[in-house]
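Tokens in:
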């Protein structure tokens, strides 16, 4: 699946070294730029035990791995709610 074929339903946001991961859902027909301009609130926030240093996601966006400052890795599964 190419990025052009995928349907973007949300975006995960974090700041390097911080322990909060936030999910912003995109309403049908909205773009990420319009959401940023509107100051929307996150749909979900997770507080992790250590700061996030890096992340990687599968092509379909269902799984995301977060590398934490203590060397551990957290796997998020979108099908299970994060």
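Residues out:
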């Amino acid at each position: 699946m190419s990025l052009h074929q995928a349907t973007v339903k949300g975006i995960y946001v974090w700041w390097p070294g911080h322990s909060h991961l936030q999910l912003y859902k995109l309403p049908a027909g909205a773009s990420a730029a319009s959401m940023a301009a509107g100051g929307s609130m996150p749909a979900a926030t997770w507080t992790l035990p250590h700061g996030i240093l890096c992340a990687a996601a599968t092509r379909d966006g269902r799984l995301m791995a977060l590398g934490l400052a203590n060397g551990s890795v957290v796997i998020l599964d979108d099908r299970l709610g994060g």
